[in-house]
TrEMBL record:
Biological source species: Candidatus Symbiobacter mobilis CR
GO terms for biological process, alphabetical: nucleotide metabolic process; purine nucleoside triphosphate catabolic process
Protein name per UniProt: dITP/XTP pyrophosphatase
Top-level EC class: hydrolase
Enzyme Commission code: 3.6.1.66
Binding site for substrate: S58, G59, N60, R61, G62, K63, A120, F205, G206, F207, D208, K228, H233, R234
NCBIfam families linked to this entry: RdgB/HAM1 family non-canonical purine NTP pyrophosphatase (TIGR00042)
Reactions accelerated catalytically: ITP + H2O = IMP + diphosphate + H(+); XTP + H2O = XMP + diphosphate + H(+); dITP + H2O = dIMP + diphosphate + H(+)
């Protein structure tokens, strides 16, 4: 709520005011400020709120930008967990689904808000689907510090001499109304491509410069963000999640 302290009138102004009144000039009648029409209640989770707020349970700036863009038509306020001081969650599980659920619970418990989490990863066919849920730390397995650039470097080194370059990027999104929500919303997306032999392109993040999409003849890192979003694993999952949230959390709204 905005509580404004009344402006204190400086003594000189107070004097001027007095002298004006003493001239018996008729005081203008102040116009009543029209009240804004009440906003529709958009949040079944906190009935008093007019605009639903959802915490995005991720510290990855690339993911946040893509999710905020694809989920924008929901008309809800999507707040990055970092802005609310939510610390990074543990991701100890063997599946994307369990890790996404853990991240969403964690962010919801810390913020008191509904949460959407994203667990993603690269599944390389020649490696039996690895690195999978451990994708973010891939480089550290080979002695490099954790970073996107080192992940790419480690992957290209590990794939030297590997002819089968097929790999998928997968994304699982989980949304919860509260940390104890018994009915999480779940959406998944998957895109298959070929791992290049050198990085190409400077858009996106993660493995985008080595994820070649035969349908485009380009890597994800060569595609503008809106084109990546329209075809990516995360874009697919986010559009499904958007529909689920509209249907289950915001019924009756356009
Ligand atoms: O080429 C890519 N295109 C993508 O679209 C993409 N999305 C995620 N990733 C990478 O896969 C791992 C996920 O790990 P992850 O789900 O644990 O995320 P994260 O740790 O970065 O953030 P958080 O959401 O957990 O806070 C991280 O290395 C990400 O960089 C991508 N790589
Ligand atoms: Mg992570």
């Amino acid at each position: 709520m905005n509580v404004r302290s009344p402006k204190s009138t400086p003594p000189s102004a107070a004097l001027r005011k007095k002298s004006t009144t003493s001239k018996s000039t008729p005081k203008p009648i102040p116009k009543p400020t029209p009240k804004p029409p009440p906003k529709p209640n958009r949040c079944p989770c906190s009935p008093g709120d007019s605009t639903m707020q959802i915490v995005l349970a991720s510290g990855n700036r690339g993911k946040l930008a893509e999710l905020q863009s694809t989920l924008a038509p929901l008309g809800v306020e999507l707040i990055a967990q970092g802005t609310l001081g939510v610390p990074e969650a543990e991701e100890p599980h063997h599946t994307f689904l369990e890790n996404a659920l853990a991240k969403a619970r964690h962010a919801s418990a810390h913020s008191g808000l509904p949460a959407i989490a994203d667990d993603a990863g690269l599944c390389v066919d020649a490696f039996g689907g690895q690195p999978g849920v451990t994708t973010a730390d891939y480089a550290t397995r080979f002695g490099y510090p954790k970073s996107d650039a080192n992940n790419v470097r480690a992957l290209l080194e590990q794939m030297q001499g590997v002819e089968d370059r097929r790999a998928s990027m997968v994304c699982t999104l989980v949304a919860l109304r509260s940390a104890t929500d018994p009915e999480p919303l779940v959406a998944t997306g998957r895109v298959t491509g070929l791992i290049t032999r050198t990085p190409v392109g400077d858009q996106g993040f993660g493995f985008d410069p080595v994820m070649f999409l035969p349908a485009f003849g380009k890597t994800f890192a060569e595609l503008p963000t809106d084109v990546k979003n329209a075809h990516s694993h995360r874009g697919q999952a986010a559009r499904t999640m958007l529909a689920l949230i509209r249907e289950r959390w915001l019924p009756g709204l356009p």
